[in-house]
Design a protein that fits this description.
Order of helices and strands of chain A: HHHHHHHHHH
Oligomer: homodimer
Helix content of chain A: over 70%
CATH class of the largest domain in chain A: Mainly Alpha
Largest sheet of chain A: none
CATH architecture of the largest domain in chain A: Orthogonal Bundle
Number of helices of chain A: 10
CATH topology of the largest domain in chain A: Tetracycline Repressor, domain 2
Largest interface: A-B, 29 and 29 residues
Number of domains of chain A: 2
Structural class of chain A: mainly alpha
Chain lengths: 196, 196
């Protein structure tokens, strides 16, 4: 039985979560098995269970890790007092980078959350609703300050979140636009459209 | 055995396709059965087969109906010689209206196309690729004319298509923004962001 090999600064549990994200993304949560996960990590299934209790616990770990990263980034942006435009720009850029650099985990949090068990399911959905409400409030604040155009802030947030989520199609595209150009041009299009 | 009841100007086949779209959207193509479809239309299964050959044929009918509506609308916009901005605006508005007014069919074409059989699958994907290429070319033309900002046209098209597709979340939202306001504000945000 071999040990789980990890990169420097990555705990074994983190390495398992990362590999599970790729597996859940490619096969779907329901079809993926702990046996496959162990195989892809090059270990026996029992050694997996030293680090993680169940497949369900892995899904929770992935979804809440992603949710907490977004929530924490939004909180940082809110307390930075950089002004509405710079704050929203920082948030758009963070979403793009998460979709580009942590695609597997974000994909699982976006698509497979529905397999979470209670009370985790309700907790996750509450976190997501709170996040969206805070984003809407940020856009609303910018509209009041006349930094942003007077367009429905819910519609703006819907456009922003849909556009970054649509990076799924960029991932599947063979001739990918370079990530730096992608980020700059997405920000220019989406931010210019809302700025007064 | 009762007859399939249809609204004025709707053929029986159209009525079946529309009902099948709702069923495929709610249950997924794989889980949906012809028996359920017959039940929801209030007819016996054999009378369904007078109008449609198989479940697979229904999926083809839905996907290609949607693809042809988009292709035909794009063609109309291209030959209208209205200028790049008005042309792209017309296309964004058409996408929004299709998502709002023909949601079930568009949802099935967006999500369940992967269950199409060959040669329909390749044909559908080719139509979609051609459509996207034409959209990119339209945006490129507007950039050359300096009507649109110099941002990667592929990124612009990705943002546009992702945003309209994201209207799925609007559909699921309880307190929906009014459709007129939704359309105007989406167009303002997405079009202003690309116009020079």
């Amino acid at each position: 039985m071999s040990k789980i090999v990890t990169a420097k600064n990555t705990s074994k549990k983190d390495a398992i979560i990362l590999r599970a994200s790729g597996l859940f993304k490619n096969k779907g949560y329901n079809a993926a098995s702990m046996r496959e996960l162990a195989e892809s990590l090059g270990v026996e299934a029992p050694s997996l269970y030293n680090h993680i209790g169940s497949k369900s616990e892995l899904l929770q770990a992935i979804c809440f890790k992603v949710a907490e990263e977004f929530t924490s980034q939004l909180h940082q942006a809110e307390i930075s007092h950089k002004g509405s435009q710079a704050t929203v720009e920082a948030i758009i850029r963070f979403h793009i980078r998460m979709m580009v650099e942590h695609y597997d985990e974000v994909f699982v949090a976006n698509h497979e959350w529905k397999h979470l068990k209670e009370p985790y399911l309700s907790d996750f959905l509450n976190q997501r609703r709170t996040y969206e409400k805070k984003l809407v409030a940020l856009v609303e604040k910018g509209i009041t300050e006349r930094v942003f155009r007077n367009i429905n802030p819910y519609v703006v947030v819907l456009n922003l979140l849909s556009a970054v989520r649509g990076l799924e199609f960029w991932h599947r595209h063979k001739n990918k636009v370079d990530t730096q150009e992608l980020e700059e041009d997405m920000v220019t299009h989406l931010l210019t459209g809302m700025v007064n």
